């Protein structure tokens, strides 16, 4: 077979492939079925895609107006229960739909969202976490009055970057699991009696000698657990640390002794 014949055969196949791609793109190049809301467009690829360019925001905005997302349906009807999570589209730096959305994930796809970067939001919106996110209901977050960004980063929401040293500095003797000090996943309270087998009567005499009569909140003086630190630990006290971290005052102190006593009740008789 001559080279000319081979050339024409290859060219004809390529031409046929290109033609079929334009005529039946849903069979030739579609990565999968679109979501149910776009089912009517499954055979009309060019409703969303431009040949040799791809999906452009202008195509999306034929149906989805950024100012109406989450407020009005694509048919113009008002949404009865305004969706809290989506009106942030009005605060995007630029309209680049495919930066987050990727449709072809199947008819039953839960969320046709590939990824989201907070850098796409205007600066004034990035710290308004409650605009999209609900306040956590756990015991610790209920007491937080500071901004989310004090512990969390939009680049990596978990793990949180809580500076534990503002409460208690971990020395070589205190590298332990959270549950040792914080019981029942209540991180707004703590006990030192997960390791230290003390009771009020055991520690009363030594503390009274130092002129300390309120010794239920250990970390107010013992910031690292070192015995010498009580001489300097009271400067500033618990209220300052709570303000720094954003906790409502006195929560760390509340019910501390009762919690510790319940955990190590065998020592209570020493007070009699």
Automatic annotation (TrEMBL):
Respond yes or no to whether keyword Transmembrane helix is given for this record.
yes
Q: Enumerate the transmembrane spans.
A: 5-24
The superkingdom listed in its UniProt entry is Bacteria
| Sequence segments annotated as region (Disordered) | 227-272
| Basic and acidic residues: bias regions | 227-245, 252-272
Q: Where in this chain does the entry annotate a coiled-coil region?
A: none
UniProt keywords (A-Z) are: Membrane, Transmembrane, Transmembrane helix
Protein name, UniProt field: Class III cytochrome C family protein
**Organism of origin:** Allochromatium palmeri
């Amino acid at each position: 077979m001559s080279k000319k014949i081979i050339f024409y055969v290859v060219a004809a196949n390529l031409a046929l492939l290109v033609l079929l791609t334009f005529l039946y793109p849903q069979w030739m190049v579609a990565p999968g079925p679109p979501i149910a809301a776009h089912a009517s467009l499954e055979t009309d690829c060019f409703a969303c895609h431009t040949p040799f360019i791809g999906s452009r925001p202008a195509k999306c905005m034929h149906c989805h107006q950024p100012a109406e997302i989450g407020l009005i349906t694509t048919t113009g009807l008002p949404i009865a229960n305004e969706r809290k999570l989506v009106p942030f589209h009005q605060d995007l730096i630029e309209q680049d739909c495919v930066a987050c959305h990727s449709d072809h994930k199947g008819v039953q796809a839960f969320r046709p969202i590939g990824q989201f970067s907070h850098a796409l939001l205007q600066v004034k919106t990035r710290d308004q976490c409650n605009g999209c996110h609900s306040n956590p209901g756990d015991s610790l977050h209920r007491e937080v009055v500071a901004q989310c960004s004090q512990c969390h980063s939009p680049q990596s929401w978990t793990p949180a970057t809580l500076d534990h040293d503002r409460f208690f500095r971990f020395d070589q003797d205190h590298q332990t699991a959270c549950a040792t000090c914080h019981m029942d996943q209540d991180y707004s309270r703590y006990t030192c009696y997960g390791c230290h087998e003390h009771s009020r009567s055991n520690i009363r005499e030594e503390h009274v000698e130092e002129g300390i009569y309120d010794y239920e909140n250990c970390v107010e003086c013992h910031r690292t657990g070192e015995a010498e630190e009580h001489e300097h630990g009271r400067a500033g006290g618990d209220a300052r640390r709570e303000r720094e971290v954003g906790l409502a005052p006195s929560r760390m102190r509340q019910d501390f002794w009762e919690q510790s006593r319940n955990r190590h009740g065998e020592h209570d008789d020493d007070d009699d």
